[in-house]
Amino acid sequence: MGQAEWARDLARQLLEKPLPRRWAHTQGVAARAETLAPILGEEADLLTASAWLHDIGYAPELVDTGFHPLDGARYLRDVHQADDQLARLVAHHSCAVYEATERGLLDVLNTEFDRERPELVEALTYCDMTTSPDGLVLDVDARLAEIHSRYGPEHLVSRSITNATPCITSAVRAIQAALTDVRSGGAG
């Protein structure tokens, strides 16, 4: 069993019943990750695994700090002794440093989990931020608007997303450019 298959099974176990909408989103994010194989090569399995696991920190049994990237990454590291790259991708997905700052957890996040290579983090951000809560593909601007409407303007997640918007949109644009380059036969 490859890393992505293991990750899928673990995510299903943690999310499918308690958080069916989060599970639908996760399935959509993983499907997006699979489309990036042409630009990721050997790292495609790692990205797909991280896509399956990026939101496991929302699982009720894993919530500790309330900051899902950190809670999920800790679970992967401490309970499953998961690959370091995988835990780092989960910890830092979708410009998580902005929410970590809002929660007063930036030092904890950065002490426990080094940042992963920017290309991989951008790829996971692209997958997450172009997938709706129901697992459907959507534009990054629509996804950001959906997050704001779900949480409301004063919520710390909305504040974090506002601050993270340049980081998120830059990541999405970088992956879109890489995909365009590969499709047009350029050096990817």
From TrEMBL:
InterPro entries: HD/PDEase_dom, HD_domain
SUPFAM superfamilies: HD-domain/PDEase-like
Domain of life: Bacteria
Domain HD: 22-97
Organism: Streptosporangium amethystogenes subsp. fukuiense
Protein name, as recorded: HD domain-containing protein
Regions crossing the membrane: none
